[in-house]
Amino acid sequence: MIDGTRGSIRYVSERIRTPHGELSLEEIAEALPGTGDLMAAVGESWWKCAHAARGGNWELAAYFARRVRGIQRRLAILRPKYREDLTRFERDLIAPVLAAAAAHDPVAFERAFAETTAEANRLHDKWGYGYIRWVLPEDPPPDLDLRDEASA
After folding, report:
1. In whole angstroms, what is the distance from residue 108 CA to residue 54 CA?
2. What is the DSSP secondary structure assignment for residue 94, as one 8-state letter?
3. CA 109 to chain CA centroid, nearest Å
């Protein structure tokens, strides 16, 4: 049952029971992560993906590339205006990164990683976020051993 509209959110009277209490659909929608939250997680995973590959830990690199893909799939649900670009991005850019990781091919990986990063920055421009320019930090993240098992 619809109770009214405020801004672009339509308010309904239904409540969802959880183990922690009852929430309205509006409360659930407001609690979902925003684009910035999801993109921060993408950047963190993308950083770890590159350095894992450079360390020869191809399984970890693929894990982080899949994590980027999964986060962006959530973004496509939460922000449908980006869905078409994100679908193309996954198909045309994330897939070659995953293929290079599966093949343990550092040359193909570096090429795919650079192309994917450049397109991400182009999409930031397209959507009015040109001030967001992602660059790979020189240093690997300190919280993981990113080397392959044989080197560790």
Report:
1. 12
2. I
3. 18
